[in-house]
Each structure stands twice: as C-alpha cells, then as structure tokens.
User: Which sequence fits this backbone?
C-alpha cells in the first residue's frame, strides 16, 4: 500500500520522515558490513529483479491475478539489512519516477514496507529456519505488517473510515497476506532447488537488535489494527491528543516570538512546516556526514 | 512504458532542465510542504497551487496534457479515501485530499521530467542522501530495463505454451521468478567481475561534480519567495 | 622475443567439482592476434578469466612479465583489457562517457584527465557523439564498441574479447572487425565465428575438455576441426524434391 502525498496529516508524515532517516541509515551501515563493499551491483540488480518479478502474474482464482511484493523474499535471500536497502531503493524509484507513493510520504512508506515489512518478513525465517512454513509466514507477515501500519497511519491522520469498510479492508489484507506467503514460499523453494547457495543461512548473520525491531513492528501493527478495528473513534481521539503535542513541539520555540507580532495561527503552521523541512534536511545531512566519515575511516 | 517517457522528457532542453538538481529538489520540497500544510484547500487556494505547478510544467517545456494525465495515476487511491470523507459529510476535505495528492504528483513529475535520474541522484547525494543508497538506485535503474525484458520474454514464452490448470500455472510463475532470480544473481556476478577487470577497488570518484551557478541561486531565490509568498498570503488573507 | 602472456600447466576446478582447465600451456607474442576456438564448455572463458585474475587456479600465469597473483592484480589489470560477452554487464554506469571514464578514475586519474582519456577512447571507436547517452538505448553494435572504448581507456597492452560478435548483425560484425584490425594491441579473441576470426587472426588454438589440443595457422585449425556452421554432410537441409 503506497501512500500518496496529501493523505497524511503534517505531524504524521513529518515524524515518520524524521524517524525513517536513522532507521534506514542504520540498515545501510549494517548492509555494508554484512556484504562486501564491492557488492553494490548485487543489491541494485536484485532491486531490478523485484521490479521485473512484479510483472509476472500469479493466478489466484475468481479470474483475478496477483503479483509478488518481495519484502520477505529479499530479506530471506539477501539478509535483512540488505533487504531493507534494496526495498528502500525500489520505493524511492517508485515515488520519484512512477508516482507510486508520495515524496513527503516516502518516510511513511519506507518505514511500513522497507523497514517493518522486510524485518517482519525475516522474523519467521530467523526463528524457525529453512522451512516452507517459515517462508509462507514471512511473506504473509511482511504484507500484513506493512498494510496494517499504513492503515493505522491513515486513520491517525484523521482520514475517516466507516466500520464495515474497515472490516472489509482488514479481510483483504489477510487474503493478500496469504497470497504473498504462498508466492514467497513457492519462489524460495524454486530458488533453493536451482542453487541452494543462493539463499543465505539464517544463523549467525543477524543481530538481536534487528530481531527486536522486527518483533516491535509486528506488535505495533497488530495493536494498531486491533485498536483500529475495535475502536475507530479511539484513533480519532488519539490523533487529536497525538497531533497536539507534536504541533506544539515544532511551533513551540517560535510561538512566543510570533505572538508578539502576529496573533494568527497561520504563521505557526507555516513555521511548523519550514521547521520540519529544516529538521529533515538537517538530519539527512548529519546521517550522510556520519556515513561518509565511517566510509573514509 | 512510463519510465521511458519520463526519461525522454528529462533529456530535453529548457530553463528548468538547465537548473542544478539540488535547486529543483529544494523547490519541490518547498512546494510540497506548502501544499501539505495548507489545512483547508479553498478553490482559490487550489487554483494558486495549480498555477504554480502549471508554471513549472511550462517552464520545463513539458507536454502539459500528457503530464497532467500521468499525474492522475494517484487519483484512484486517494479517491477511495475521499469518498469516505464525502460519506462522513465533509465534502471540502474530500476535494482537498484529491487536489493535494494530484498536484503533489504533478510537481514530482516536473522534477523527474526535467532532471535525468543520474543528475538527480548526484544532487540528492550532495544534499545528504547516503552514497550506498544512491549507488544501489543507480544500478537498479540501469538494470531495470535489462531484467524487465528478460521477465517479459519469460512471460511470453509461458503464454505461448498455453494455460493449464491453475495450480500448474501458479507453480510455473513461481519457477519463472526463481529462474529470474538465479539469472539476476549471475548477472550481478558478471557486472562485479567487469568492474574488477577495470580496476575497481571499492570506491569510485564520479565525473559530474557540478557547481551551483548564479542563475541557479537566482532561480532558487525566486522560486522560494514565490512559494513562501503564496503560502503567506493564503495565511494572511484567508487564515489558511 | 619475450611473450606478452605466458601460461604453463594451468589447472582449475570449479566449486561444484567440474574440472574446467586441465593443464593449459599458452604463449602470446607482441603484435599477435590469436583466435580461441572450442565447443561450449571447453574452458575458453574460464581460461581468459585467469589472465587478469578473476579466477585463480594452479599453475603459472604471467602477463607482460608480471606473475598473475593477488598483489600484482591492479598492475596486471592495467595491462590486459577484457571485453565481456554481455555488453550489458560491462556498461553499468548511467551514461556512456561515465562508463568509459570508470577505468581511468579507478586508475587514479583526476576528473579532467579521465574525461579527456574517455573522450579519446570514444573517438577511437568512432562514437564520440554518444557520450551523453544512456547505455541501454544503444544498439548491440554500439554497446560493444562502447564496451571496447571502456577497455581502451585503460590503455592496455593486450585486448581479450569474449565472443564479441554475439547479438551483432553482419554489418556491425564487419565494422567491429575493421575497428579491431586498426588497433595496434595484441589480441586474444574467443569466438565461434571462423569467418570473423579469419578476418583478424593468423593463429588459432583449439580447446577441448580443458586442454589446448591444437595450436597453429588458423586455416589449418578451421579445416582440421571443420569449424564452420552448416550440416555435417555439407548439403543444404530441407525437404528434397520428390523424385
């Protein structure tokens, strides 16, 4: 589920953008340590592979077809950190070149699909090892977690959703998750049959941090859905409570100063936006510098 | 294919094409933030933002109709949520969602339609994006064509041999993707060897290190003041 | 005369147990062009990948007086330029000029010098007009020549070409042969195309099951191994007119 620009409220996209920078930066650093520096082409080609694989249709009945999403497949075949990097590259190209997902919403989409989705897809493999059930659960988890997070973020942004629609949507998520699970399992078994060396072993390659983060994202998604499905109004209330402090946080330092000159709220909003932009830029710059320094060290 | 069209646009020559990628990225972000932080999009406000987007399209010498059509790809997704707002009795909000997502997509198209991806990546890199990521994106885009073509051939080959029962077709598709994966792996190995054969040692300096010129700065200043002026006047005049 | 390439008793086994090279001896002298013939899987490509250290087997390999081993690899790879069979694997940078400049930049040239070297290499293959283009929009023949320019920009003393005519139409094959004849470097050409090889080389070697089983004038080798396409009987295939 690629969220376009315009749907998420400012506090939501702003905080997710800010959160995604260190998350992706961390994964990029780990990926560089897990894979040799010179293996950049592998990650790029694997991204192209996922794009291409999405062109191949799977018949799923009732005259409809589905296609691979690929988060769990990448995590299992390349390792979770490399999977996050490849998925980030895919989503960035989709946002910029294909208008699939927004640019301001890129942070949300990256966290949902590239970060939480990939890690959740890796979790069963890490826990149960090389089994068909682990492949299936990985694919299913990955889609379920990404979609649920996206839904929670939309609800948090105050997008209204009638209760029956919510129920139907969650049902669709479950169906999609099962399909992705089946595709992931079938493809990974095929790859394993072609050349067992192409699928990375689950042991010894991953730190506990990543497993922890994966667990947290699964939990977060589950809770989000649970709350969303049982108390849609609670989310609205939560959004109000959540949005308040966030906005104050950004506008706060400037608010008093403004108040003396302008009494209108629009400047606060503008300032919040600009401050957010500066914040994102600053964090990006900082992470970039840090990575650059690590590289030259 | 969509990305081929965009790439052809990006090789054009215009005032916007000539500007530094960083300048365009910053202006795009300013536009998107201004649009996103406008809480209620009145028709007048929408028209102002639309005028800015259209000005961008015209400055870039891009085909207006085709671009506006391509931006509409975001509408189905947004429309679903707009309908819920409509049902909830909030028609202005529904319209606002549609306008925001549509104009945002159009603005992004102006950026990628006037900036070749290689330059855009260099720009993002000097704005702080991690090098590993821009390199991966660069390789991804380079081999997108090659590997999609392979996938397309396999799809055709499968179609030529007819359609069997569903479980069989499902397995065939999975098998095709597995083969595609193995071949992509092989190709990556080949690329890696070709890089080694030409003296690659893990780090490469890149050719295009462009500088921001006076015109770029003037353009940035003008663009930013325009967006800021629009956002501010919306705030002052209509308290938006 | 000192040989540019000297190989003695080279053996190599892949991880899966296949013995790909089984005692190869070979020499290449300055100014020479040698064609490498042999059936699919006979070890030709494995052999050339040993010449610049992409693979390492048992035995002795030296290039321009440098033994091919880990510490010599950067120097060896400057001396010997390998043009891969699949141009798409070799042209990995976003634009033609950046791709051709990849080698010079790795060699430590600064940006201006690398640009100059790359432009010169593109002029050498007659494609300076394509400098700003993206590689995937080129024809197969253009891709092959850009790949060659990328190698020429390394200023190597030896060129190794792996199946250079694959995917090329006959005019592009002729252009490539003419271009290669103009280049002064010693060349090794792996190919199935006897006609193309004859246009370039006087000497040929024949690989069979990981060994060189024949080495001599190209015409003799082609005759001895019947290295021409067509049916074994020499007659055109197809339905015979009813008698």
Assistant:
């Amino acid at each position: 589920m690629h969220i376009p620009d315009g749907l998420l409220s400012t506090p939501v996209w702003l905080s997710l953008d800010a959160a995604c920078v260190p998350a992706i930066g961390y994964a990029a650093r780990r990926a560089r340590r897990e894979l040799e520096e010179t293996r950049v082409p592998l990650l790029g080609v694997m991204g192209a592979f996922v794009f291409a694989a999405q062109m191949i249709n799977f018949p799923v009945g009732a005259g409809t077809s589905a296609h691979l999403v690929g988060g769990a497949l990448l995590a299992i075949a390349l390792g979770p950190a490399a999977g996050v990097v490849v998925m980030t590259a895919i989503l960035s190209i989709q946002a910029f070149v294909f208008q699939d997902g927004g640019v301001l919403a890129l942070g949300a989409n990256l966290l949902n699909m590239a970060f939480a989705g990939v890690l959740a897809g890796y979790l069963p493999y890490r826990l149960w090892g090389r089994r068909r059930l682990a492949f299936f659960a990985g694919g299913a988890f990955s889609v379920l977690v990404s979609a649920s997070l996206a839904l929670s973020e939309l609800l948090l942004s105050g997008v209204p959703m009638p209760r029956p629609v919510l129920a139907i949507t969650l049902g669709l998520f479950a169906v999609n998750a099962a399909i992705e699970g089946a595709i992931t399992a079938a493809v990974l078994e095929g790859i394993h049959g072609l050349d067992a060396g192409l699928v990375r072993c689950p042991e010894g390659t991953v730190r506990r941090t990543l497993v922890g983060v994966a667990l947290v994202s699964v939990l977060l998604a589950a809770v989000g859905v649970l709350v969303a499905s049982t108390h849609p109004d609670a989310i609205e209330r939560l959004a109000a409570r959540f949005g308040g402090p966030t906005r104050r946080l950004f506008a706060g330092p400037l608010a008093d100063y403004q108040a003396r000159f302008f009494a209108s709220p629009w400047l606060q909003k503008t300032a919040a936006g600009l401050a957010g932009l500066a914040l994102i830029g600053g964090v990006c710059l900082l992470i970039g510098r840090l990575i650059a320094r690590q590289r030259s060290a | 294919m969509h990305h081929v069209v965009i790439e052809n646009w990006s090789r054009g020559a215009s005032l916007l094409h000539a500007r530094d990628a960083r300048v365009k990225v910053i202006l795009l972000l300013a536009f998107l933030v201004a649009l996103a932080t406008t809480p209620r999009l009145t028709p007048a406000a929408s028209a102002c933002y639309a005028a800015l987007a259209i000005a961008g399209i015209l400055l870039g010498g891009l085909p207006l109709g085709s671009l506006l059509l391509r931006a509409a790809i975001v509408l189905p997704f947004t429309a679903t949520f707009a309908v819920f707002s409509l049902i909830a009795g909030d028609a202005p909000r529904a319209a606002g969602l549609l306008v925001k997502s549509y104009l945002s997509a159009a603005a992004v198209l102006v950026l990628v339609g006037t900036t070749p991806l290689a330059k855009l990546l260099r720009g993002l890199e000097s704005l702080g994006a991690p090098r590993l990521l821009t390199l991966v994106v660069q390789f991804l885009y380079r081999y997108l064509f090659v590997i999609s073509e392979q996938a397309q051939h396999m799809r055709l080959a499968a179609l030529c041999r007819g359609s069997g029962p569903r479980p069989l077709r499902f397995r065939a598709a999975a098998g095709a993707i597995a083969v595609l994966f193995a071949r992509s792996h092989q190709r990556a190995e080949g690329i890696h060897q070709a890089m080694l054969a030409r003296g690659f040692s893990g780090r490469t300096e890149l050719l295009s290190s462009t500088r921001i010129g006076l015109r770029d700065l003037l353009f940035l200043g003008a663009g930013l003041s325009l967006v800021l002026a629009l956002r501010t006047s919306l705030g002052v005049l209509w308290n938006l | 005369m000192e040989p540019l390439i000297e190989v003695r008793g080279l053996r190599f086994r892949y991880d899966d147990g296949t013995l790909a090279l089984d005692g190869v001896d070979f020499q290449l002298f300055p100014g020479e062009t040698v064609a490498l013939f042999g059936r699919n899987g006979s070890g030709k490509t494995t052999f050339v990948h040993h010449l610049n250290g992409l693979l390492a087997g048992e035995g002795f390999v030296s290039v321009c007086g440098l033994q091919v081993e880990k510490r010599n690899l950067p120097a060896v790879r400057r001396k010997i330029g390998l043009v891969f069979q699949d141009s798409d694997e070799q042209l990995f940078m976003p634009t033609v000029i950046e791709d051709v400049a990849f080698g010079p930049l790795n060699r430590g040239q600064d940006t201006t010098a690398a640009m100059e070297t790359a432009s010169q290499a593109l002029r050498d293959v007659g494609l300076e007009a394509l400098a700003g283009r993206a590689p995937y929009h080129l024809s197969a023949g253009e891709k092959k020549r850009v790949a060659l320019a990328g190698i020429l920009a390394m200023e190597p003393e030896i060129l190794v070409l792996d199946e250079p005519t694959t995917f090329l139409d006959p005019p592009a094959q002729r252009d490539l042969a003419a271009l290669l004849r103009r280049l002064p470097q010693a060349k090794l050409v792996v190919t199935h195309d006897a006609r193309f090889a004859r246009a370039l080389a006087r000497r040929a070697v024949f690989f069979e099951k990981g060994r060189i089983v024949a080495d001599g004038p190209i015409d003799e080798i082609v005759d001895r191994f019947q290295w021409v396409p067509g049916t074994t009987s020499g007659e055109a295939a197809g339905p015979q007119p009813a008698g």
Remarks:
- Residues 10-231 of chain A form a domain with the Arp2/3 complex 21 kDa subunit ARPC3 fold (CATH 1.10.1760.20).
